[in-house]
Amino acid sequence: MQVFDVIRGDGPIVLGQPHGGTEVPEAIAGRLNPNGTQLADTDWHIVQLYEGLLPGATVVRSHVHRYVIDANRDPTGVSLYPGQNTTTLVPLTDFDGQPIWHAGQEPSADEVEARRLAYHAPYHDALAAELDRVRAKHGVAILFDCHSIRSNIPFLFEGELPIFNTGTNLGTTCAPAVEAAVDDIARASGRPAVLNGRFKGGWTTRHYGQPAQSIHAIQMEIAQRGYMQEAAPWAWDPSRAADLRPQLQKMLDHLTTLALSGAITSEGSA
After folding, report:
1. 238-261 helix and 176-188 helix, angle to the nearest 10 degrees
2. What is the pLDDT of residues 10-39, one digit of tens each?
3. CA–CA separation, 126 vs 108, rounded Å?
4. 3-state secondary structure 18-52
5. What is the enclosing helix (H) or strand (E) of 172?
6. Judging by beta carbons within 10 Å of its beta carbon (0-12, 13-18, 19+), is residue 55 exposed, middle or buried?
7. Are 17 and 43 in contact (CB under 8 A)?
8. Could you tell me the strand order of the sheet in which 58-62 lies?
9. DSSP per-residue codes, 246-270
10. What does pTM read for this prediction?
11. How many whole angstroms separate alpha carbon 2 and alpha carbon 64?
C-alpha cells in the first residue's frame, strides 16, 4: 500500500493533506465495526478541492485513512485540545463519539507504535523534507494544511461550524501577514469565518510552524457543506465547489506573493 505521495512544485507553498486518504490495510479493515467501515470522518474530496488552484505548489498527501493512524496528531499521543472531546492518535471512536472497532479489536499500545512507524513517520519525513527544500530555494516556506469536516458535530463542538476555520495556534505558527492574508480573504468572501476558533491548528501546523526558522504554517479547516453533501455517499457538489474554490485560490495566490516579495521575515513579522 502506498502511504503517501508528493507532487513537487517550484513555488514557496506546500499543501499538506493528511486526512484525504481512504486506504486501510486488509488486516486492519477486518477489525473495524460496521460504523468504522463507513470511514465517515474522511476529509472527503480534499484533493479535488485544491486541484489546480496553485500551479507550482508542492503537495504532500497521505493515502492512509485516519482510522489507521491520524497523521495530524502528536505522535506521543498528547492531546491537542486538553479538556475537550477529540480523537486520539489511533482513534477509538468516530467524531460522534461512537466506537469504530469490534469489541476486543482495539489496537494495543505496541500496535499504535508500529502504525506510527509505518504510516505517520514516513508522511512527516516527506513533509519535512519538502519544507526544507522549498525554504532552501526561496528563503521561506509556507505550509498550508488542508482539512475539512462536517458542519455539525455536537460531540466536538456546539452549533454549526463556520465555512472557513483558520488556525495558527493563536498566531504562533506564522507571521502576522500570513495569518491576515488568509483570514481577511475568508471574511471578505461573505461566508462565515473564524480565526483560531474550535480548530486552532493541529499537530502538523504547530510542529512545523516556526516563523523564526522561516517556515510558516497555517491550517484551513473547511466545513464540508461549502463544497459537498455532508451525508453518505458524501457526494461532491460542483456548484458549491465552484463558488468556494476561487476563495481558496485567492488565499494561495496572496501567500505566494507575500513569500516571493520578501515581505515575511524570519522573525515572523510583516
Report:
1. 150
2. 999 999 999 999 999 999 999 999 999 999
3. 26
4. CCCCCECCHHHHCCECCCHHHCCCCCCCHHHHHCC
5. none
6. exposed
7. yes
8. 4-7, 58-62, 13-17, 141-149, 215-223, 164-167, 193-195
9. HHHHHHHHHHHHHHHHT-S-TTS--
10. 0.95
11. 8
| Amino acid at the residue 238 | P
Q: What's the grid cell of residue 78? A: 498528547
Question: Tens of pLDDT along the chain (270 residues)?
Answer: 899 999 999 999 999 999 999 999 999 999 999 999 999 999 999 999 999 999 999 999 999 999 999 999 999 988 777 777 778 999 999 999 999 999 999 999 999 999 999 999 999 999 999 999 999 999 999 999 999 999 999 999 999 999 999 999 999 999 999 999 999 999 999 999 999 999 999 999 999 999 999 999 999 999 999 999 999 999 999 999 999 999 999 999 999 999 999 888 654 444
The x, y and z cell numbers of residue 18, run together, are: 493528511
Contact assessment for residue 124 and residue 97, using Cβ atoms and an 8 Å cutoff: no
Cα–Cα distance between 185 and 216 in angstroms, integer?
Answer: 18
Give the residue carrying C-alpha cell 515581505.
263
Quote the DSSP letter at residue 145: E
